[in-house]
């Protein structure tokens, strides 16, 4: 199993959920920008599940050394890489903030994914799970830079699913709504619309088993975003969302 964004609470919860459900992996490759934190998680799953893991450093804001990945062979890839950034007006006009949001959520992430996609395609088997966001369903003033990057990532996963469908590789797009994670800590989230990492992991694993194509972690978000997408533009542009 390959995990991109291994410090993500959702990614770690998914790994544990898969192992609890009896999934067997020769090795789990934990690809991360934070080696120290990820090594603690690697030790945790070794003690708890006797699962061997290898931690590999990847900083998407630096040039990627693909030679680090040559030995990796896996049938399951879970991508939880993401960066929320500063969604305030101050952040909007901070080009470094904008570039980082776009690079980590899409521009520099896609080439890395494509590297592994080629391996999956040549083997003609496997599953790729990508965490996108409801923010990509429609641009809203509160987070449209982040949302635009996630919209691009959603489109990438959709095209990838289409491309790989006859090559026996399945692609699952996951759109979490509000998530109780480090990335959203301090934000005023509605608890009824917020999933914990463990809840998300359980739902994603079931969707993986059923070979679903696109899922919202809490189904209510599917309805919420349907309503938001259907609001006429002349009304929508005046809303504070």
Automatic annotation (TrEMBL):
The keyword Transit peptide does not apply. Keywords: Membrane, Oxidoreductase, Transmembrane, Transmembrane helix. The chain crosses the membrane at residues 214-236. One of its GO terms (molecular function) is oxidoreductase activity. InterPro entries: NAD(P)-bd_dom_sf (IPR036291), SDR_fam (IPR002347). Pfam families: adh_short. Belongs to the short-chain dehydrogenases/reductases (SDR) family. This is SDR family NAD(P)-dependent oxidoreductase. It comes from Chryseobacterium cheonjiense.
């Amino acid at each position: 199993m390959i995990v991109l964004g291994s410090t993500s609470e959702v990614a770690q919860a998914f790994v544990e959920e898969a192992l609890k459900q009896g999934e067997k992996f020769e090795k789990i490759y934990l690809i991360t920008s934070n080696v120290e934190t990820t090594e603690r998680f690697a030790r945790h799953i070794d003690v708890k599940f006797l699962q061997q893991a290898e931690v590999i450093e990847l900083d998407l804001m630096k040039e990627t050394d693909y030679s680090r990945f040559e030995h990796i062979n896996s049938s399951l890839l879970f991508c939880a890489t993401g960066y929320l950034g500063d969604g305030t007006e101050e952040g909007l006009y901070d080009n470094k903030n904008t570039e980082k949001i776009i690079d980590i959520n899409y521009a520099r992430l896609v080439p890395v994914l494509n590297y592994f996609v080629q391996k999956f395609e040549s083997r003609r088997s496997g599953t790729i799970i990508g965490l996108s966001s409801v923010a990509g369903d429609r641009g809203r003033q509160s987070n449209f830079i982040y949302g635009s990057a996630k919209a691009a990532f959603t489109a990438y996963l959709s095209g990838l699913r289409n491309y790989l469908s006859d090559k026996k590789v399945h692609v699952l797009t996951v759109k979490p709504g509000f998530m109780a994670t480090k990335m959203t800590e301090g934000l005023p989230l509605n608890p009824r619309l917020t999933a914990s990492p463990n809840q998300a992991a359980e739902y994603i694993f079931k969707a993986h088993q059923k070979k679903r194509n696109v899922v919202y972690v809490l189904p209510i978000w599917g309805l919420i975003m349907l309503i938001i997408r259907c609001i006429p533009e002349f009304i929508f542009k005046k809303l504070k969302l």
